[in-house]
Every structure is written in structure tokens, then in C-alpha cells.
Design a protein that fits this description.
Order of helices and strands: EHEEEEHEEE
Shape: globular
Oligomer: single chain
CATH architecture of the largest domain: 2-Layer Sandwich
Number of strands: 8
Largest sheet: 4 strands, mixed
Number of domains: 2
Low-confidence stretches: none
Helix content: 10-25%
CATH topology of the largest domain: Signal recognition particle alu RNA binding heterodimer, srp9/1
């Protein structure tokens, strides 16, 4: 048995109706870039050019709460919430205090939930 440690590269895959339309929202919110061809997949790359998110076209609509979502830890809700809303997000719930963590649950333009969270100081 090998004791070699292998790196794991985590990529978040998001099912959606229209990856080409949704990719700019995530890229702009995160300050990243989009790479794609308008097909079934659109990649969102971080500042180093590494794919961190893959938007995947699926035929079925989103109908229930996501079982997994992104938590974006931010420094200032008063800066990040208007930014997300300006890009097309909508507030699902909040802001509220979650045990000292200021939290707002949002949905992207295609209804996928994510959270903006300000950690306690």
C-alpha cells in the first residue's frame, strides 16, 4: 500500500438551466472569469486560472432546497449583499445572527441557494 499523499482539487458543480447565462453572475460575484463555449458546461476559473466551479446544463428545473450550497465568508455584509443583489441575486432569508455569524441566505438568478456570512470578530 502506497503512503503517497495526493492532492485533491475541489470543484463545485452546479446544475442549472442555462450555464451560459448563469456563469457571469458567479464569475462577477467572486471576481473570477468564465471559460466556456456556450455548450452544456461553463467553467468559472479563479485568479490562477484554475476551474473552481463548473456550471452544468440539466433539463429538469430546480424544485427543492439545495442539499449542498456555497457559504461565502465575507468581511462586510453591507458591501457584499448589495453587490450580490446588483448582480441578480435575491434574498431568501436574513440577514440574521446565527450564533455570532451574521448570515444572509440568497438565491442566484436561477434559484440556487448560497450564503453570505460574516464571521464573528
Amino acid at each position: 500500500m502506497s503512503t503517497e499523499v495526493r492532492m485533491v482539487d475541489l470543484v463545485w458543480v452546479l446544475d442549472c438551466a442555462d450555464p451560459t447565462a448563469l456563469a457571469p453572475f458567479w464569475a462577477d460575484l467572486l471576481g473570477w472569469t468564465v471559460r466556456g463555449d456556450g455548450g452544456r458546461y461553463e467553467a468559472v476559473l479563479d485568479a490562477d486560472g484554475v476551474t473552481r466551479m463548473l456550471l452544468q446544463r440539466v433539463p429538469e428545473p430546480k424544485t427543492v432546497k439545495n442539499r449542498m450550497h456555497l457559504d461565502l465568508r465575507v468581511s462586510d455584509m453591507d458591501v457584499w449583499l448589495p453587490r450580490a443583489l446588483g448582480l441578480g441575486a435575491s434574498v431568501v432569508r436574513g440577514p440574521f445572527d446565527d450564533g455570532g455569524w451574521l448570515t444572509t441566505v440568497l438565491a442566484d438568478p436561477q434559484g440556487n441557494e448560497f450564503c453570505l456570512i460574516v464571521p464573528p470578530e
